[in-house]
UniProtKB/TrEMBL annotation, chains A, B:
GO molecular function terms noted in the UniProt entry: glutathione binding; glutathione transferase activity
Protein name, as recorded: glutathione transferase
Phylogenetic classification of the source organism: Eukaryota, Viridiplantae, Streptophyta, Embryophyta, Tracheophyta
PROSITE patterns documented for this protein: GST_CTER (PS50405), GST_NTER (PS50404)
Residues annotated as domain GST C-terminal: 88-215
Gene that produces this protein: LOC105177072
Amino acid sequence: MVVKVYGGAYGSPKRVIACFIEKEIEYDVVHIDLFKGENTTPHYLNLQPFGALPVIQDGDYTLYESRAIIRYYAEKYKSQGTELLGRTVEERGLVEQWLEVEAHNFQPPLYDLVIHVLFDGKEGVIPDEKRIKEDEEKLARVLDVYEQRLSTSKYLAGDSFSLADLSHLPFGHYLVTSLGREYMIRDRKHVSRWWDDISSRPSWKKVLQLHPYVF
Amino acid sequence: MVVKVYGGAYGSPKRVIACFIEKEIEYDVVHIDLFKGENTTPHYLNLQPFGALPVIQDGDYTLYESRAIIRYYAEKYKSQGTELLGRTVEERGLVEQWLEVEAHNFQPPLYDLVIHVLFDGKEGVIPDEKRIKEDEEKLARVLDVYEQRLSTSKYLAGDSFSLADLSHLPFGHYLVTSLGREYMIRDRKHVSRWWDDISSRPSWKKVLQLHPYVF
């Protein structure tokens, strides 16, 4: 049974696809065009009632929220492909902690930057410079904590690559590409080393090659 | 070894304490006064570098982010107290999905309401009525999805109480008390039935009795 994942051209579904490649799970992408409102059709809302990406269908099992999906597959295929949840319950605790930090501290200012820098620019809206500056400052403080953590730990949750690291790839990618803010990573020695490590994994390179960003 | 949990008078640490009571885990609360900035001392930042609540210390194991902590203890003590993670990997997947929905859809507009209604009121700031209205509308749309889900499912993730339900208690409580918006629950038959069920659990009653809200 090949898993169907909806919306591979966007950021969050890439979190799921990177996990599938690491875990050697076969998948098919179902294209969704947000600009055409394909996430608000009755069919899509029946799968994902909030109209958000991604959702997966695996036989008759449907699951949404990218970080829930990656946890599910990392646990279901624990002994297949890369171990992504830690080897002990204590290691998994730290994976969970840094997954939450990614979701609540790292992603929000970055997502806001994507909206206010990339979308507003495209739509001809005058960018809200005050808000952009606040987002940059928030993100800088978060990356300062990462710099400290990564000065004593190879990866966020410990000495092995995990879901916690993987989860940073889809939005971290905007920082070093279309947002033009790679310096925020390069100015921090350990963050820079970590980013090079995780973004050069064959799984992430394959995601970028097979499923390019729509913007 | 008794687990220490920091900041029991506030919302998010109550998520952890409710889990401890369900799992029959002994704990001690370390008081933190946010209004005195006790979350920004070098000692606290050494435990939780973002200055957020809660953090736990369990021997030499330190963990932060409330939803990471509850996952850790629900897994570590799987066969003790209430089962909170589902019985199968598929059930756990749905617990994870609804935990993410709570974190990304339910909590943000509610947290914003707490800030703009309760804090602004206290501090003599004129409440931002436009923002309050937007938060209410966002939350109403989320609760409409819950109403649909709970019309066919006893609890959010299935037929058993889980972390997904528990995680709604600390901020849902504001809705029916100091925010004065209990009607948002009562106007929805199935949400109302679910809220009565989860908020009348002995664990939550004990949390409220032992660790009253500071505001």
